[in-house]
From TrEMBL:
GO terms for molecular function: heme binding; iron ion binding; steroid 17-alpha-monooxygenase activity. Heme binds at C424. It comes from Channa striata (Snakehead murrel). It is found in: Membrane. GO terms for cellular component: membrane. The lineage of its organism: Eukaryota, Metazoa, Chordata, Craniata, Vertebrata. Gene3D superfamilies: Cytochrome P450 (1.10.630.10). Keywords: Heme, Iron, Membrane, Metal-binding, Monooxygenase, Oxidoreductase. The keyword Heme applies. The keyword Iron applies. Its cofactor is heme. GO terms for biological process: hormone biosynthetic process; progesterone metabolic process. InterPro entries: Cyt_P450 (IPR001128), Cyt_P450_CS (IPR017972), Cyt_P450_E_grp-I (IPR002401), Cyt_P450_sf (IPR036396). Belongs to the cytochrome P450 family. This is Cytochrome P450, family 1, subfamily C, polypeptide 1.
Amino acid sequence: WLWVRNLRLKRRLPGPFAWPLVGNVMQLGQMPHITFAKLAKKYGNVYQIRLGCSDIVVLNGDRAIHQALIQHGTEFAGRPNFVSFQMISGGRSMTFTNYSKQWKAHRRLAQSSLRAFSSANSQTKKTFEQHVTAEAMSLVQAFLHQSTDGRYFDPSHEFTVAAANIMCALCFGRRYGHDDLEFRTMLKRMDKFGETVGAGSLVDVMPWLQSFPNPVRSIYKNFKNLNKEFFAFVTDKVVQHRESFNPDVTRDMSDAIISVIEHGTDSGLTKEFVEATVTDLIGAGQDTMSTLMQWIVLLLVKYPDVQAKLHDIVDKVVGPDRLPSVEDRRNLQYLDAFIYETMRFTSFVPVTIPHSTTSDVTIEGLHIPKDTVVFINQWSVNHDPLKWKDPHIFDPTRFLDENGALDKDMVNSVMIFSTGKRRCIGDQIAKVKVFLFTAVLLHQCSFESDPSEPLTLDCSYGLSLKPLRIRINAKLRGKLLGVVS
Ligand code: HEM
């Protein structure tokens, strides 16, 4: 009887029929997160698909995702042992490593060094905010330069440079100019990173694709090279830091990490983890932030009435003679509502980095074995019609109550940084950055799209959804301000 009961409890997961060799690859389509949400309507919020040689469980909707990542946090905190994951950060990435005691120590170290240089006390907070504001002003200058004579330009690359610069300032105490060709070229190649590690990428689940020439094989080769190049860039800076290290002066995050790993009492991590930690942080902080900023300008030009309202509010609260600061935030709640709606509406990290189960586990009555790959569909949470009125409509006011104040519960319902043990560790600094960047850009510029081209929200799929094409012109509003330190 017990055996029958267990069998019933361990019901096979529902899911679509999987073809031999390819499984459900042909069904994924251009936007797998939307396919996953459609499949959830038919099979429920927890179901199984097969991609190549991997069985994958897909989790959709707030309830199933919270049950997995919060109630069964440890069981869902793993990462698959994909070959591509081992090419990242010299093979010692914290982000792409399975759950273990060493991973815990590594994550704690990354988290505490990030905090020490962004929010530990009022002085570090101020220094960090000044960095971000200065970077935003360099962006304004680069935009105005590219807009000379009414020209339209693609701002994506400037956003990447600005986002990478903030991380380089934290990690190395230096930034790079928007015209630094070497830096730009390296970042341009890194743009392709998310193609390989995004949920649904075929590189790791169909290893036989490596044996003959095809597009997936060249993506794979390219991925290996771009990781090598980026890791070499970081290693070079870390080596310089090591050579000039002074235990009495912590210049930046590289010094702080060297100090813990190489001069502290047993961190459990070897010297090589210094380079890996810095590579992880710069990589994670750059792609996500620049993609978010691309969506922000795209939505500002797509909805000129929203842009006009934001200009109005920023002008009233800040005035023409100074730049916006974090202290203005409590009076700029419509701006925060606009940012949250951008994150919800675009769900630009539609599916988290793939997870895996660290032991057998049962959720919603369904048994999932240890070492199963798990996709977490954040998009499905942000577009659930039971939770959001007209989820397909862009409307920042949905986050404001009748007094124009931000509704905290609604804000917390947006899922973009994931949740549980693998939740993003950069969420707080990302929120400060996006607020300051957007506030400074709006204070200084007005944006317009190229009327000779159709304005589209079409995007490419990967770890992040990137707009396919943005063409804007930026005009100075009032006077160009300097940064007060
Ligand atoms: C992981 C989102 C900015 C550092 C993640 C994950 C998501 C995410 C969805 C995967 C969580 C999972 O697998 O369940 C974002 C978004 C950002 C952002 C939307 C910007 C708007 C940043 C920044 C940093 C950062 C600025 C660092 C400076 C990390 C790290 C991980 C991570 C280290 C890996 C955590 C782990 O595996 O334990 N982020 N992120 N992120 N993020 Fe972010």
